[in-house]
Design goal:
With about 170 residues, the chain is an all-alpha fold. The chain has one domain. It is built from 6 helices and no strands. It is elongated, with a radius of gyration of 22 Å.
């Protein structure tokens, strides 16, 4: 009888452990998903479209890649990365960084799906350059400073987090 009770207790413990999610993310996973992946959305406004022009001119096999299609790909990547951030379990040490990352991704995605999309369509439709420049200037005037604030806030938090967790961060010379 005693052996059966032990077996039952063991089974209950195993079921409890497997039913609960006990996985914790490493500091590197938090940093990579919340901050490092945000480099994919670091080109915003006029700089985003300069990135598209560089891509078209310098990457083989891009013939027929419209600006709108390029933007759709950027949106898909940003949405996937945002989901990765949202799927992280916040801790007291990671919550500010995760929140800043989510805010940044939402801000960028909103603009990508509206103002950036409008400009991408203008480029694809070969509208006059003056109109495209005017639209880019309006976008930068309206949204760029706020983007930079959100981006810098994330990276300020990420730099502290990386230092506190002995994560080496190499900065690109821009």
């Amino acid at each position: 009888m005693r052996l059966n009770i032990k077996n039952v207790m063991l089974m209950v413990m195993v079921l409890t452990i497997t039913a609960c999610e006990f996985s914790f993310n490493t500091p590197e996973e938090y940093f990579d998903r919340a901050a490092l992946n945000s480099n994919e959305i670091s080109r915003f406004g006029t700089y985003y479209f300069e990135g598209y022009q560089f891509y078209i001119k310098n990457v083989s096999g891009t013939a027929g890649m419209t600006c709108e299609k390029y933007l759709e790909n950027s949106i898909l990547h940003a949405e996937k990365n945002l989901e990765k951030v949202k799927n992280l379990r916040p801790t007291s040490a990671t919550k500010p960084m995760l929140d800043a990352s989510i805010i940044l991704y939402n801000y960028v995605l909103t603009s990508y799906k509206t103002e950036h999309l409008k400009i991408a369509k203008m480029i694809d439709q070969h509208e006059p350059e003056e109109q495209i420049i005017k639209a880019l200037t309006a976008l930068d005037t309206k949204r760029y400073n706020e983007f930079i604030e959100k981006y810098n806030k994330l990276w300020k938090l990420a730099d502290v987090y990386a230092k506190d967790n002995n994560i080496e961060v190499k900065k690109m010379p821009f």
